[in-house]
Amino acid sequence: MLHIVNSSHTQTSALASCLRLAQPGATLLLIEDAIYAATTGAGMADAMKGFKVCVLQPDVEARGMAGRLIDGLSAVDYAGFVDLVVEHPNSQTWL
Length: 95
What we know:
Elements: E1 2-5, H1 14-21, E2 27-30, H2 37-40, H3 44-50, E3 52-56, H4 57-62, E4 74-76, H5 78-87, E5 91-94
Parallel strand pairs: 1-2, 1-5, 2-3, 3-4
């Protein structure tokens, strides 16, 4: 399953809820303000043990966070986002 989170971990509990409820082996995609969690840690080290964690590169660049991501995350462009959606027949967006 693909889990898409778009809210900052400092503004909502969407990321925390996703990490608590998602099944191991799922893919987590951080977009929009959720990419800030990929720069601070915010539980990402633990998340990467059970999930494939990706960030949307254009959102990283738009927020000036390029070069500040924690190690082990995968960056995808818009085509990569589409590939993830196609690869995972089920997706959940966390608002």
